[in-house]
Write a structure and sequence with these properties.
CATH architecture: 3-Layer(aba) Sandwich
Strand order of the largest sheet: 1-7-6-2-5-4-3
Strand content: 25-35%
CATH superfamily: P-loop containing nucleotide triphosphate hydrolases
CATH class: Alpha Beta
Largest sheet: 7 strands, mixed
Helix content: 25-40%
Shape: globular
Oligomer: single chain
């Protein structure tokens, strides 16, 4: 790679658009990845995850892991783990949740409130930031590793209109 991939920025008008951009990202998702999801409460992080999971082939319900902290989704090629660390009291609690067992060659971690797990989470490949703007949301997807750059390059070529 010669130059750092620029972040993808989009305006999302409603929950359907938020799910659609998650589903579009799923189309280029590798079997192993770490994504940090950032944004205020209610900004659409779980809605984005719902779209990504549906785009990856999950057909069942998608629950917010606010109280369970982790929701696993078994898919044919990988397991996607949705973590919501908002209620985490101490980053060390991730050890008791078995965070090391979740990180593997065929797992994707989607982590909300990652700053609460600092020092115990793997470094992210992508950061997805959702922010309120009027009746909709701004989303910015930023690559934070070489793998993240490859994903956004592929996504930009294939989903420029999303």
């Amino acid at each position: 790679m010669t130059a750092m991939t620029r972040p993808v920025k989009r305006y999302l008008q409603g929950a359907d658009a938020t799910e659609a951009i998650g589903a579009a990202l799923a189309a280029v998702l590798p079997v192993t990845l770490v994504v940090y999801l950032r944004g205020d409460l209610g900004a659409g992080k779980t809605t984005f995850v719902r779209g990504l999971l549906r785009g990856a082939g999950h057909r069942g319900p998608v629950r917010s892991p606010t109280y369970t902290l982790v929701e696993p989704y078994e898919l044919p090629r990988r397991t996607i783990y949705h973590l919501d660390l908002y209620r985490l009291g101490d980053p060390e609690e991730l050890e008791y949740l078995g965070i090391r067992d979740l990180v593997g060659p065929e797992s994707v971690l989607l982590v909300e409130w990652a700053e609460r797990g600092a020092g115990f989470l793997p470094e992210p490949d992508l950061e997805v930031r959702l922010e309120y703007r009027g009746a909709g949301r701004d989303v910015m997807i930023n690559p934070l590793s070489p793998e993240g750059e490859i994903i956004l390059d592929a996504w930009g070529r294939d989903h420029a209109s999303v």
